[in-house]
Amino acid sequence: MKSPADQPVAVIGTGVIGAGWAALFLARGLDVTAFDPVPDAEERLRAALDLAWPALTRLGLADGASRDRLTFTATAGDAVAGARFVQENGPERVDLKRTLLATLDEATPPSAPIASSSSGLMPSRLQEMCPAHPERVLVGHPFNPAHLIPLVEVVAGERTGLDITRQTMDFYRSVGKRPVLVRREVPGHLANRLQAALWREAYSLVERGVASVADIDAAIAHGPGLRWALLGPLVNQHLSGGPGGMAHTLRHLGPPAQTWMDDLGTPRLTPELADLLVDGVRDELDGIDQEAMTADRDALLVGLLQAKRRHHALP
Q1: Does this model's pTM top 0.85?
Q2: Quick one: three-class SS letters along 62-74?
């Protein structure tokens, strides 16, 4: 029997997120077996790998890393049959997810974790779809582009074994991810909830005519977003308090901050508000090559990640 190091990692579903996972695993020198039922899925995946490889090369490939270590299989069962870890990226539809996970549950070796990239389904619900071994099912939710953004949220379900959670966290660390353990199941997990809080107020500010879409984007991209890319919002708040730290900040800025929080909007995504947002983004990007903008974003991400690696004081 192969040792775990010799067993492949399976990627099930090779759309945008699945392709990012496959690229990352290959760049870390792993063998990858992949499956997706969509016509031309293999060709699309290999094209996505070609696009991702230059950035991964800049970040540093592991010994033995090669796109040739990808095997695309005819069925999901074939992809997971000998896997040591399964990253599932199927559509966020319960009916499709139930059928897919039942197949994975039956075909995957019992000791291999099945981590779902789901951003909307709770791991305990996913476990109900895996009656044979629900204890090895959990959520491993990445952020796009998954091959570059280090964060992955690990969310255990009611029946997830502690050893599986530890095994999953260790595996993600081994491929260069920054796993965060979400200690309770909540809709949206962790980071999406934080994003949603910001989106809610951004939508409200647009709806109330306080600022344009472009100005809201500028306010974050050229203001606090620069600091958030280096340290989280709470540590940044601590540093803003000088020698007194968070205690000083909360003592002096807590009361006005409470006033701001009390005044935050509660917008509803009506068709009218959606039109305002869509039109605002269209105006903001008028005349901009969006493919070039995305490429520039990824290049800057790589540079930022490289710079953060050189500064070990950053947590």
Answers
A1: yes
A2: CCCCCHHHEEECC
